[in-house]
């Protein structure tokens, strides 16, 4: 008779989870974190991002969002800034960081900086694509699933998933 439960140690669980992550998501997270780390180095901050207390990290992230530019000096699209936050959230979650950047009390300044910067960029004409369908980015979908606004956690979440 076959075994009902297969034995896995914690390293095997982590490896399985990593292997199932979308490769494009993994690349985006890696690239976005490299960008944040280069900003932190410019700020003379040498600690690992996950070692920085939430209130200090909030200060760094809010300044990062306001200062980051493309290599050619142009501003990013508003949705790209949102993607940076989603990547940072994924990274910190994987490191078992104590607080969420997206929902945590100590990251209000980061969220305010993101909203303000997105409004500013939209006034400059960024992100205004009148013929583009309004759909969720993969990062936004991930967040909705994490918050149980989409998925199988409730009838409303299930309806939101089908829309």
UniProtKB/TrEMBL annotation:
Region forming the signal peptide: none
Residues covered by the QRICH1-like domain: 19-116
InterPro entries membership: KIAA1958, QRICH1_dom
Positions of the UniProt region annotated as Disordered: 118-139
Protein known as: QRICH1-like domain-containing protein
Domain of life, per lineage: Eukaryota
